[in-house]
């Protein structure tokens, strides 16, 4: 018997999740059945979409039920295998959730080769967030040489890849991030313009430092950043709407006049192409190319990445709040059984 520590959803949060919304418990795990594998979690990915899974509001995916283990992508080691596809000691990408061990169907796992890249990157630059940036930017944003691409949450795993692919495609990259340390990192990554949204002066700073306007705005955050970017969008600008993390902990929309008419007016008069997407939509079309392009770019140093790896499963709820509030610096990953 394997004792498994896990974090379950105890109640649905209102606003920022609190300790009482989770239940940390332990349970004995059985053995893997035919076609299944017992996994020990090495790394758990924390992603903004998990806030949506805690809510039962209608969305593109089913919520986590109260009492269930919180979901999440994981990099794990095979402890026991009841499948001819995997052997003890293999490292795999799966969807084990917020727990130390999981039993998963072999068919849902992908073997990882530590020789290719550190295995934690399968949760970031070489995983779902990197793919989101790649597919959303190339399919919807379609940056052309000489154009200007802007993105916020620009030091995160989605935003940093958007900016670096824009550069590879010959476009100018404008990164928006929270605080001077993150802005300095954007300069190191080769963004042409790096701005801090916390100065409260983003609208004017964009006007001064991006006089040519914006041709592609990859929308990761919404809120005040979107308000500052909207007036800078050029005619025929493309806006892949990837995420609205500024809203995820809101309990209701902020007070104020209804601006939907003005927004639609802007879309009409500047012929904007605003298109939401969820990355799964593009898996069939782009995933194979993504893996080969991105592995090459990472190897050649054309795409660099930063990880924020934190120790200990029990602190995961705290780390998750840090992620939503911008207190992460790079891809947020939990090293599940590490103590420091
Ligand atoms: N559509 C899809 O299929 C898909 C897939 C993956 C991710 N996403 C979305 O992509 C976005 C980025 O995800 P990620 O994993 O790369 O996250 P991330 O950048 O690692 O973390 C979120 C970042 O959002 C920024 N942020 C939070 N509140 C903000 C606010 N009020 N105003 C401006 N910035 C704020 C913070 O960065 P700063 O400190 O720099 O402000 C924070 O670090 C999220 O919206 C996520 O939901 C969508």
Task: Supply database-style keywords.
340 residues; alpha/beta; Rossmann fold; seven-stranded mixed beta sheet; six-stranded parallel beta sheet; oxidoreductase activity, acting on the CH-CH group of donors, NAD or NADP as acceptor
Give a concise summary:
The protein has 340 residues and is an alpha/beta fold.
Structural overview:
This protein has 340 residues and is an alpha/beta fold. The chain folds into two domains: 2-124 and 306-335, Quinone Oxidoreductase, Chain A, domain 1 (Alpha-Beta Complex); 132-281, NAD(P)-binding Rossmann-like Domain (Rossmann fold, 3-Layer(aba) Sandwich). 27% of the residues lie in helices and 26% in strands. The chain has nine helices and 15 strands. It has helices at 49-53, 128-141, 159-168, 180-189, 202-209, 223-229, 260-269, 283-300, 316-324; strands spanning 2-9, 22-29, 36-45, 74-81, 91-94, 101-105, 110-111, 148-152, 172-177, 193-196, 214-218, 233-241, 273-276, 307-311, 331-335. The strands form three sheets. Strands 3, 4, 5, 6, 7, 14 and 15 form a seven-stranded mixed sheet that branches. A six-stranded parallel sheet has the order 10-9-8-11-12-13, sandwiched between helices. It has a two-stranded antiparallel sheet with strand order 1-2. The radius of gyration is 21 Å and the shape is globular. Residues 47-49, 129, 132, 152-153, 155-159, 177-178, 182, 197, 220-221, 223, 225, 242-243, 245-246, 277-279, 323, 326, 328, 332 line the site of NADP nicotinamide-adenine-dinucleotide phosphate. It holds the Pfam family ADH_zinc_N. Keywords: Oxidoreductase. InterPro entries: ADH-like_C, ADH_N_2, ER, GroES-like_sf, MDR_fam, NAD(P)-bd_dom_sf. Residues 15-334 form the Enoyl reductase (ER) domain. One of its GO terms (molecular function) is oxidoreductase activity, acting on the CH-CH group of donors, NAD or NADP as acceptor.
């Amino acid at each position: 018997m394997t004792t498994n520590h896990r974090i379950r959803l105890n109640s649905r949060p209102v606003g920022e999740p609190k300790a009482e919304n989770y239940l940390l418990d332990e349970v004995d795990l059985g053995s893997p059945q035919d076609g299944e594998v017992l996994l020990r979690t090495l790394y758990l990915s924390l992603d903004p979409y998990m806030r949506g899974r805690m809510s039962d509001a209608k969305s593109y995916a089913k919520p986590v039920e109260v009492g269930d283990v919180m979901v999440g992508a994981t990099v794990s080691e095979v402890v026991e295998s009841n499948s001819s596809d995997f052997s003890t000691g293999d490292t795999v990408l799966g969807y084990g959730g917020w727990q130390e061990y999981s039993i998963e169907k072999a068919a849902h796992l992908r073997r990882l080769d530590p020789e290719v890249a550190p295995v934690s990157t399968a949760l970031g630059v070489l995983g779902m967030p990197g793919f989101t940036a790649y597919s959303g930017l190339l399919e919807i944003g379609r940056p052309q040489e000489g154009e200007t691409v802007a993105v916020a949450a620009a030091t995160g795993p989605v935003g940093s890849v958007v900016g670096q692919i824009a550069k590879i495609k010959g476009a100018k990259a404008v990164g928006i991030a929270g605080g001077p340390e993150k802005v300095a990192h954007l300069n190191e990554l080769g963004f042409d313009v790096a701005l801090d949204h916390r100065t409260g002066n983003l609208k004017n700073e964009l006007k001064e430092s991006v006089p040519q306007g914006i041709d592609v705005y990859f929308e990761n955050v919404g809120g005040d950043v979107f308000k500052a970017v909207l007036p800078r969008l050029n005619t025929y600008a493309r806006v892949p709407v990837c995420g609205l993390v500024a809203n995820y902990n809101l309990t209701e929309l902020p007070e104020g006049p209804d601006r939907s008419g003005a927004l639609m007016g802007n879309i009409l008069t500047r012929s904007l192409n605003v298109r939401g997407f969820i990355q799964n939509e593009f898996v069939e079309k782009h995933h194979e190319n993504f893996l080969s392009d991105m592995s090459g770019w990472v190897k050649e140093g054309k795409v660099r990445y930063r990880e924020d790896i934190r120790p200990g499963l029990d602190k995961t709820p705290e780390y998750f709040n840090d992620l939503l509030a911008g207190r992460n610096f790079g891809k947020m990953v939990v090293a599940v059984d590490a103590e420091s």
